[in-house]
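An example makes the point: we let one protein speak, the chain in one-letter code, the fold tokenised, and here it is:
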Amino acid sequence: MTPSVRLQEMIRIIRSARTQGEERGVIQRECAAIRAQFRQADNGGRSHNLAKLLYVHMLGYPAHFGQMECVRLIASPRYSDKRVGYLGAMMLLDEKQDASLLITNSIKNDLSHSSQYVQSLALCTLACMGSSEMCRDLAPEIERLLKSSNSYIKKKAALCAVHIVRKVPELGEMFTPSVRALLSEKNHGVLHGAVVLITELCERNPETLDAFRKAVPELVQIMKGLVTSGYSPEHNVAGISDPFLQVRILRLLRILGRNSDTASDAMNDLLAQVATNTDSSKTAGSAVLYETVLTIMDIKSESGLRVLAVNILGRFLLNNDRNIRYISMTSLQKIVQTDHNAVQRHRGTIVDCLKDPDASVKRRALELSLALVSAANIRSMMKELLTFLSSCPPELRAHAASGIFNAAERYAPSQRWHIDTILHVLTTAGGDVRDETVPNLIQLITTASDLHSYTVHKLYRALVTDISQQSLVQVACWCIGEYGDLLLKGDCEETEPAEVTEDDVLDALETVLQSHMSSPSTRAFALTATMKLSTRIRDNIDRIRSIVSIYGSCIDLELQQRAVEYNALFKKYDHMRAAVLERMPVIDKSSPGHTNGEIPGGTVKEPEQLKPKPPVTGLTQQPASQVCDLLDLLGGTDKPSEPSLAPPTTAATSTNSTVGGDLLDLLGGLEPTPVPTVTVYEKNGVMVKLQCDKHTDTAVTITLIASNSTENDVTNFTLQAAVPKSIQLQMKAPSGDVIPAQGMGHVTQTVLLHNPSKATLKMRVRVCYSSQGTMCQDTVQVDSFPSPVEN
């Protein structure tokens, strides 16, 4: 029966449909007609109907009823039927369909067909949708075709063998002897298939990798022939001879040369030749050069060759194509630690990329610029970074500020320069800095005793100019409270002193207290500064008392508590006010008592204890042994890795003043009590320890301490915890989300566990972070907890 509508006519009708409903109506009518014709025993238009059905499938409509028709057409002796049948099998069938098993015998027969085109159809179908069972059954046939005299068939067979190796890796040994012989072929298609197959075999089997290292000289000769060959219209792409094959060979050489001195030496000259003779003005040439650079950096190449590779990446930075600039900076970011001096030569070009309008390129340029900062170029690089910070997109501002802080702390030429740099960042991006920035800057200011007057003058000017940057306002309020007497004296040699009166200072602090832009914590800084000024000024004590008393009935509990306590100092304990509000001692960052966003071992606990979260009504009580509750809470089903119990680490117990240290000396140098900890996670240089601060029958307070021993900061660090349903969990806010490099700081997070049923404690912790641009996520289970710091 002749089809009522031809394929071209059906396509025309579907495309002319004005609405989706009209299109569905056309397709439904055609599908009904196709079904009716499929049911007829003698139908000469089966291939035509299946072709129409494949077009319907491409539009997203169901076409599964054509699967058995594919099987029938594949078994047909006519090539035109087989072509459509195999195409339908590749589109409508996969290894999960039972119908795919029915074509195994047909494929085996067609692999031995006299026509190379029929063999090609069978090879393409097997490579596209062959299941593990089909691959095992037909692997000997593919190995036989690899030895065929027909280049067309050998090319298809090599690519089909790649699919078989991916599906059934243990079958790779079957193809190893045959594929080595394909390297002597002149046909580029066969060579390309052979290189891809060898790459797959080497990546999956170390023994095969060692065997194919002997083929490096052959690969080098093939590559040299491609580089030095003249113009060939068949393989030339933008002046490059077969860049696809060149890229594949370079990738294979990278695998073979990794951790092998002999193989690396054999390809050094070739890599130098490719790097110097390849034209990078076209995309094809850039692709070959990029693979050459990756190969040079991954094998044990000579130092001069590595410098040449860095210079190629430097040339890529000048390319007009943003994609090429992006991959160049991505590669430089990976090698900046090992070839720092070579990358430094392109510092100017990298800094210029900070002005690129593309956000991705700008982010990569920022990361690379921060990695290039050193003691020799800190001033010039910081100038460029501060300029970038003033105009960078909001999504990059926090990362830029964090990187500037780390670089300034590591390479600051002087304390004044360090303070000026941080104040500049706070003035520009004070709302995007990390939480620990304020205590870090306060610590820096206290240690620079000769700069107190200079700093308080500069911060006062910044406070009067702008109170929208909360971090800057908090530091300014703290400095004014501590060193307000130096501000009122106006004695400052480093900068032009300003005549500031007591009323001016109190007006500035009162503006902060009354501003709608001030957060509760900022108001707390301002209120404390106002109170501290009561011991540093003479004529406005009554005004200070009036300001403090106003906040005794503030709706904010923190401010209200501070105000009530300060009022008590004015009234009941006025004789102690001067001693209580005296200037803070110099804070030594290395001292045990200074946490600065970090948790050294064994800190003295605050008097008030954190209360566990009250029981939630309707919470189903479950036995603590049900680990599935943990799985439900974290959404995972994989068994987590068990944390290794580390021996208790000994750390100095911190004290709030030097009195504790003197007492230990009087007692004959007694050592502080060690704080037991458990290492719950250690991977990629990131370590998370668990410290038990308080442990009762029904409540546990623990602290998770994360450190970073790598050369780069760990960013986007988050911790998640889950416990059985019989235990209630409350997580406090973390101290930050960036772990400084080389153990320069920690990130801590307090977890409160309320255990009214006294069940066995179990906790599962998920660790997420970004290290060198790679997101990492792991889950560990904690079954044992250390002894508490205090009982």
Summary: Residues 143 and 175 are 6 Å apart (CA to CA). The radius of gyration is 36 Å.
